[in-house]
Amino acid sequence: MATSMKRKHEENINKNNLNAKKLNTTDSSSDKLLKFIEWCEKNEFNISPKVRVGCEGSCAQYGMVAVDDIPEGYCLFQIPRNCLIMPENSDIAELVEKEKQSLSVTNQWIPLLLTLLFETNNPSSKWKPYLDLFPNPDSIDLPIFWESSEVNQLLQGSGVDAAVKRDLGMIQNDFEKLVVPFVQKYSKELSNLKVNQEDFKKMVAFVMAYSFTEPKAKTNKVSEDGLESESSVDSEDEEDQPVMAPPMMVPLADSLNHITDHNAKLTFGKEALKMVAAKSIKKGEEIFNTYGEVSNLHLMHMYGFAEQYPANGHDVVEVPVVRLLEAAQELGQDQTLTSKKCALLKEQAIIIDDDVLVINKDGFVSDEVCLQILKVLAFSQQEFDDYVEREGWSDAESEASVVDDSALSFANLPTVEVKWKQLLLRMAQLHLSHYSTSLEEDEKLLAQTNSMSSREKFSLFTRQGQKKLLYILLDACK
Ligand SMILES: C[S@@+](CC[C@H](N)C(=O)[O-])C[C@H]1O[C@@H](n2cnc3c(N)ncnc32)[C@H](O)[C@@H]1O
Fold first, then answer.
1. What is the pLDDT of residues 136-181, one digit of tens each?
2. Separation CA 455–CA 314 (nearest Å)
3. Could you tell me if the CB of 109 is within 6 A of ligand 1?
4. DSSP assigned state of 175
5. Spatial CB neighbours of 60, under 8 Å, sequence gap ≥ 6
6. Which of 1, 222, 388, 400 has the fewest Cβ atoms within 10 Å of its own Cβ atom?
7. Which residue from 131, 258, 286 has its CB within 8 A of the most atoms of ligand 1, so it is best to mutate?
8. Could you give the C-alpha distances from 333 to 269, 329, 330, 344, 460, in angstroms and in order?
């Protein structure tokens, strides 16, 4: 390393250490943070002196704050690829590779989870300063850890309740069927690693709330002066088919919190990942990454927080498709005909039991399935008989439904068939009745968020945002 670069590097360590010392944390946690920052500097994370990691100025425990004005495109820090926690970079790479097929049957997470279990139990892990700081048990309060009664009370009907049930089943299954057999088979190589389901669940939460996935073949260029080049956009082809890689832990990048209106983003280069300013940032402002274009449902489920309406422009409400069938049963004059329609829609796999209809701020997302269901549900006896005889849509009808892809936007809904509007209106009303509170009650509660626990507050934001979307649907269907 050239002398001037070395000096600059040491200055940076000192500056960040100094910043870390100003933390509003207990001594032992600021000591852990100091060690982590030293580790980052030794590993050439090149943390800019314009930023500080710590609890001060962060909206949720650790975070990153600008200590100087930062221009758009400026590189805040980098993460060399050899510092990413992924099976390939760990000493258990060979073992995981051997069992890759069987370990990835249910999901892509198990190899990383095994790597983390191994590395957190390895006193000479190269990531020790990172793993000593994270996962911080206090900051990972995901709904998978709540009593089921609390999940129901706060999040019933939101979709988070269903996701939690699925997660708990999967955690138990993966632990018993994949993790335990792997650890037993390689007990010698894993130095008799002891695992239990509770620790495994905590590791799942760590991966849920802290991991990143890399979009396939995404590269970015950052010039010598730390400015991000605009030429780094994905090719059209990649944009069309974003294939996600397995998750990985990205030290330091995961100390940043998220908001939809973020001011930083992670870019994926060949040698290193870089956190760059997505817009200019003023001294004193918190630096927010983006965890993706994600709804409150996803934020609540995977990260344990949500944004207050209307801050999250990516918010959605997911209405189980069965609600539309319930609406049809209620409104249909001929119960037998409606039952036949529902049975046929299932038989033709247009409706699959767990399916949901997704509604965002503009209306139904990918409304093709919803359109097909509405058309069948609105058929008269004669139209239905013809449809059954033809065994589905004629070619001309199918083509028409493909062209008509914004038919169920909020802007277009007032112009659609009255029968469809009645079905959607009743569906929205039925879905609203599945939450444990009404929108009016939620809006009264919004005045009391200061005296609420984080669980109560973020659950309220999740419910209220979803209900707002349902009320927009109700208005559009009137
Ligand atoms: C990748 S970590 C970010 C670092 C984290 N604040 C810490 O102290 O370790 C993600 C977690 O940060 C918290 N978080 C991130 N953004 C947030 C926000 N806008 N509001 C509240 N909590 C947030 C949530 O607890 C989430 O699970």
1. 766 799 999 999 999 999 999 999 999 999 999 999 999 999 999 9
2. 21
3. no
4. I
5. 139, 257, 305
6. 1
7. 258
8. 61, 8, 8, 18, 38
